[in-house]
Design brief:
Length: about 350
Amino acid sequence: MTNAPEFAGVWTLAEARDEKISSVSFEVLAWGKDLADKLGVKLASVILGHNLKDKLEELAYHGADLIYAVDHPNLEHFAPDSYSRVLVNLVSEFSPEIFIASATTYGRTIMPVLAATVHTGLTADCTGLDIEAETRLLIQTRPAIGGNVMATIKTPNHRPQMATVRPKSRRPLPRDESRRADIIWRDYPEEDTRSKVRFIEFIADETLEMPLQEADIVVAGGKGMRDGRNFRHIYELAQCLNGAAGASRSAVDIGWITYPHQIGLSGKTVNPRLYVGIGISGAVQHLAGMSSADTIIAINTDPDASIFRVADIGAVGDALQIVPELIRKIRLRSASSEGSLAAEGGNHSDVL
């Protein structure tokens, strides 16, 4: 689609599974809100699925001014062929200026198909989005050349301008139940909603006790742990803090821990209240996946390690000496707090 004055509005792609709206839908609305405000246009959320009518108000509560909804039994489960046909119909009819999605499996699958079909560009895994005031162009920033440089990308000649952003790279806007959105329902021919793919079942990843991207506390280890057997300290500290265990790519590549724990450009993006990086040097690729944490603690033997540049608290020393002692102190504090609560007849839930 070529550039034309009738293209207007910022669209975000919502995601639904099991008749529930995913939290990434609200995250991408937060990204879109900044862009829509700078352009002076409405912010829209686009959602495909089945039996979602009673859930759509949540999109309004989190920032949507407009909601484009397509509800059909054939759309109950995500399928790239049927979903892309429906999205092409919506884009062709309403002509958004910008369309962004989360870089989940859903977004990474459907957005390239959509971009290719409507003949426009797509920038994947953006870490920054902005508006160029004089041109109204979307400024898309993402790591390039193995994460060694930050590339700035524009789409001057085609619309919509499309991008995906990393999950957990932006917090949702505060929920506001006073907000309302106009809902635009669309029905399309049966053949547009029918997929060649047959859904069999969804199998959840059970390798993590707590989903890494949902954890409020993440404890991650790197090559500085020196041996895979030493990763037991990472698991123990994460357990003590009621958090999740993560890792750098190098630790995963060596085989010390499995891929679902990997944090960074080629892994997961986390946005916890507390991130503890142990034996991680802080390569650009890793920092892109965790630097938005509220508080960052780093432990490394190298005082010049890059991770100290983003850390709020840094400890220079041997992780294999520091971490076991840290675990011991936390357990002592926990036991002491539990004892005090028991003596007072209170309930203990979380001493930290």
